Amino acid sequence: MNAVQEDRTFIQTILKYVMLLLKYKILIITGTSVVAVTVLVFAVISLKLPPEVSPMPNVYEATGVVLFQEGGSEVNMSAMLSAFGIDSSSEGSSPSQLAMHIINSRSFIDEVINKFRMIEKYNIVDNVKNTSRDIFRNSSSNVFYEDSGALVISYNATDPFFASEIVNYEIELLEKWFLEQNISTRSSELSLMEEKLEELSQDIKNVEAEIQTFQLEHGVLDIRDIAEAQSTMLTDLRTSLNQIELQIRSYSEYSTIEDPALTSLKNQRDNVITQIRRIESGYTSSDGRTMPSLAELPQLSLSFSHLTAELELKTQLYQTLSERYEVTKLVASDAGAFTVLEYAEVPEEKIGPMRGQMVVKATGMAFVALIALALLIEYLKKIINDPKNRQILAGKP
Prior knowledge:
By secondary structure, the chain is α+β, with helices and mostly antiparallel strands. It has helices at residues 2-23, 25-48, 72-83, 95-103, 106-115, 118-121, 128-139, 160-218, 223-254, 260-281, 297-331, 355-385, 387-394, and strands at 60-68, 140-145, 150-157, 283-284, 290-291, 338-342.
């Protein structure tokens, strides 16, 4: 019984409100119709009026797409340099991050504003710079998609041609900046490399001249040849000296007089000793070569080793830098991983406003508001018609 009673009460309540709304049907239907017609007329008028004077003009969105390959020419250059055994790794901002900073920078925005005379176009008088920048930013949208490496540049305007021109000019400015920056950087690198190559080339020539002077002075290509030759000569002379002295001792045991043979052996011994001392103290040969002393050989050998080591080092540096210079020239014309996938086209379809949706929403809101008004009116009537409430409203105790 309780369930049946509750269902009956619920149905009665619904019927009560239905009858109440039917009582105010003229208000609800008329009011809703007036709002619907009014909004519809407003939408049609806003559509027919020129965009300059329309309270709700059509808005068009132009879109361009730019592709970035992270690392760009730096990756290509690094790979090529690595093939030559040159470490060119470096840290820095990616091109896409740099592009986002550039396209949102004040100088970039101001250049676009000045190009299209937006201050005059929108009749901006107060806070000219900030206001024009705000208008531009509110109409712009720049989104970078990391998964595809695409930067989507968009601009909204009531004039579709104007929107497409702005997007394309932004792309041109961005491309120009990257190209000029890349060429400037590469030119600077090439200039520094050319200067260093010229410096190394001159250093190599100076070291080669020192080595050549050393070789001409001592008549050898390598000081080690002198040391080896002197060592061989001294070894031979000392061996010969030992043999002569043995002969002199042997001969002196059997002869007590100064005979010519013994005198000849002694003279030979003195000549060998003289030759040994001459080689050890250094001498100038008959062909004009200066033969260093035995004591000078270590220092001369060290000096010659330093010269040859310096020549080898500078030659290796020159070769490595030459390879890097050639590789840098190969990538100098690359714009730096910047590719324009799509320039903006003149949009044919508007993105707003949605006048049909606006009419439907306004009509629905008016209908709900009028229902609420009808309920409020009925509630106020009920309060007023109550005798007790009447006395209270009349100020009677």
